[in-house]
Design goal:
44% helix, eight-stranded mixed beta sheet, 13% strand, elongated, 2-enoyl-CoA Hydratase, Chain A, domain 1, alpha/beta
């Protein structure tokens, strides 16, 4: 009788509590993965990396009562290494914690951003989202003609004849381009194999279409099997888990001011000013690089 009374009381109390305090409602934690991947991460410019996202992912997957984890992805791509590391961490946690993973594409999940999305069991996009760009790119500038006009002589000394490759201040060498082409094709193969392993029979189109590096709108991506459907995080999760599903946003903790062991003595203010100035410069360069990545998508 006592157990029945306590159970009845618990139900009545739960009915008047705010949703965020109730333990009887389904919970799907949400992790936002936004920005270029692997660029400089400072208080002045945030980017995606395993170091910056691991804490939030660990927190989300550690919620034992949650049947799933949702990822909000908005990235034009970036570092293939960091993209792959984040992908692997998500898959490892999903298998360890036995969680279903949803990915919801916002503006874009392109290149490395799509690689991360492939860590999900289901991918959804907005009709206007940019999806795809399954390819590998490297770019730079050649200044050899400029320094020749200025009368500047380039001096480089190495041990190892291939130590300097594609030096922007020297004319392009065919053997360097050939070597780079091999590396890019190998990276592309890794990317293609990953997409194939995760999307499987959902991809009806031929490899030449899917893996050309082209990108598509969400509506087109759905037809190509790159996403499972169209929709946003709230509508999909409510349809799947009910109108009362809770969707707490999980974030990694971060601090603006770098800490120094031993307190604030010993010229800390000067060191801090130098650190912040360096971070501001790094942030400015990262912003330029990220802007270039977004511009490739017309965004």
């Amino acid at each position: 009788m006592a157990d029945s009374f306590l159970s009845s009381l618990s139900r009545r109390v739960s009915g008047i509590l705010p949703k965020k305090w109730r333990r009887d409602l389904p919970v799907v934690p949400v992790v936002r993965l936004s920005g270029a991947i692997g660029m400089a991460t400072t208080p002045f410019a945030r980017s995606l990396s395993l170091a910056g996202t691991a804490q939030a992912l660990d927190k989300a997957f550690a919620m034992t009562s949650a049947p799933a984890v949702a990822l909000l992805i908005n990235s034009p791509g970036g570092s293939p290494v960091q993209s792959h590391l984040i992908f692997r961490r998500i898959r490892a946690l999903a298998e360890e914690k036995e969680k279903h993973v949803f990915a919801f594409v916002e503006d874009a999940a392109a290149s490395g951003g799509y690689m991360i999305a492939c860590a999900a069991d289901e991918i959804f996009a907005d009709p206007c989202s940019i999806v795809g760009s399954i390819g590998v790119v490297t770019a730079g500038f050649g200044f050899d003609k400029a320094i020749e006009k200025l009368g500047v002589e380039r001096r480089v000394f190495t041990a190892g004849k291939r130590k300097v490759t594609l030096d922007p201040f020297r004319p392009t060498r065919p053997e360097d381009v050939e070597r780079l082409d091999v590396l890019l094709k190998e990276l592309h193969t890794v990317f293609v194999d990953l997409v194939r392993s995760r999307r499987g029979d959902a991809l009806p189109a031929d490899d030449e279409t899917l893996f050309s590096g082209e990108f598509w709108l969400g509506t087109q991506a759905a037809g190509l099997g790159l996403v499972d459907g169209l929709g946003d995080v709230r509508s999909i999760l409510k349809a799947r888990y009910g109108e009362d599903v809770r969707m707490p946003l999980v974030q990694s903790s971060s601090g603006l001011i770098p800490r120094r062991p031993g307190g604030f003595s010993g010229g800390f203010s000067g060191a801090l000013a130098g650190t912040l100035a360096a971070q501001a410069a790094d942030g400015a360069m990262a912003a330029v690089e990220e802007r270039a990545l977004w511009s490739r998508l017309g965004l």
